[in-house]
Amino acid sequence: MNRLLLLEDDINLIDGLRYSLKKNGFMLDVAQTVAQAYECLKSTAYDLLLLDITLPDGSGFDVCDLVRKQGNQVPIIFLTALDEEVNVIRGLDSGGDDYITKPFRLGELSSRIRALLRRVNISNSEKMTILESGDLSIDLMGSRVFCKGQVLDLTNAEYRLLCLLVRNADRIVTRDMILRELWDSTGNFVDDNTLSVYVRRLREKVEIDPSHPQRLVTVRGFGYRWNEVSI
């Protein structure tokens, strides 16, 4: 589950965003001032920042500038009522990745967030050719999976599911997140029952005892978690 930081001082907008983003599978921390945002950034690593521009004690531009000067490439979306070209240019030049003008549809914002996170994940994965987890390794260039040195015979869907789980090792991946990110984004529909079949088949290939999985475990009421273990 991706963790976001929202810098915004409009209480009504905060309430709407908190409800909508949680419903869409995101965790959200809220800062209502630039000072609070700095404190949050000191203690937490975020997957994406949502920054309003005009705050009581400064600007979202200030936060963006600080983050980029520290070498942090976390994706940043500006939320702004200022749609003048000069503000848009300043936001992008300061290191922002996208901007959305108020008022906006909450569904549109969620879509923009997912699209940006996908681009970042693709960029990061292109820099990495091997994913390793215990005695299992994934050759991303060759689309092959090795377990204890032996190649696993996986279908395309099983391979993509495994990559998603391993990239989020030791974190809960919800069923909705899997359905949305793994298949809906490519235009292929997979229902909940089909996902259960894929999980069962994948367990048969990566577990010693699929009935008592050690790697691909179910987190009841939420989804699945991939444990980094050697078995």
Describe the structure using short key phrases:
231 residues, alpha/beta, Rossmann fold, Arc Repressor Mutant, subunit A, 2 domains, 5-stranded parallel sheet, 4-stranded antiparallel sheet, 8 helices, Sig_transdc_resp-reg_receiver, transcription regulation
Describe what you observe in this structure.
The protein is α/β, with parallel strands linked by helices and 231 residues long. It has two domains: 3-123, Response regulator (Rossmann fold, 3-Layer(aba) Sandwich), CATH 3.40.50.2300; 130-226, Winged helix-like DNA-binding domain superfamily/Winged helix DNA-binding domain (Arc Repressor Mutant, subunit A). It has eight helices and 14 strands. The protein has helices at 11-23, 34-43, 60-69, 85-93, 106-127, 156-167, 175-183, 192-206, and strands at residues 3-7, 27-31, 48-52, 54-55, 58-59, 76-80, 98-101, 130-133, 136-139, 144-147, 150-151, 172-174, 216-219, 223-226. The chain has a five-stranded parallel β-sheet, sandwiched between helices. Helix 6 (156-167) packs across helix 8. The longest helix has 22 residues, at 106-127. It is elongated. The model has no long low-confidence stretch (mean pLDDT 85).
